[in-house]
Amino acid sequence: MSVPMISFEAGEARLDWIALTEALAAGHRGPRAEIGDTFLYRGGDTLLSRAAWIDGMGIAVKTATIFPGNDGRETPVVNGGVNLYSDADGTLEAIVDFHLVTKWKTAGDSLMAARRLARADSRRILIVGAGAVARSLREAYGAGFPGAEFMVWNRTNAAAAALAAEYPDTRMVIDLEEAVAEADIVTCATMST
Fold first, then answer.
1. Which domains does the chain have, with CATH numbers?
2. Which of 13, 99, 104, 190 is the most exposed place for a label (fewest CB within 10 A)?
């Protein structure tokens, strides 16, 4: 039996931010998943796996590799895959590109919350951070709040300016405190605590 591989490109072509937030909300109303995490380390490298089983729906195992030494190479620091298994017999049903799940699930969860908790007339959105997740958030919030103006703050101005230049109605800000005071919504995409 051939197991389908869902690539980043194939998933991107079929996904929609608003439909995703509705699907995520429906998932939160369903049965709770049993979840288990495993972390393995080798020096600065990490292998982490999160398994989730929703009785009656299925099993997913998301595995990520984090290799900080890849920074500066043409290989991403974080890689991985998601295996989906049948709830009925445990057979492998699909393998999904890790980067697709990370992009859409991370930004989708944030947008789902904002669509339910923020004012519907929110028009000024601040993104804190300027990496890959910040780009996903800009796409998601752009779909969820059409016509909004976006601000980007990052610890390095160059990264914030680069992200802002990629999208319309997006500008870099230098003063974080001032930007937070101006924003209707603040979303963070940093590894900082």
1. 5-98 (3.30.1780.10), 118-188 (3.40.50.720)
2. 13
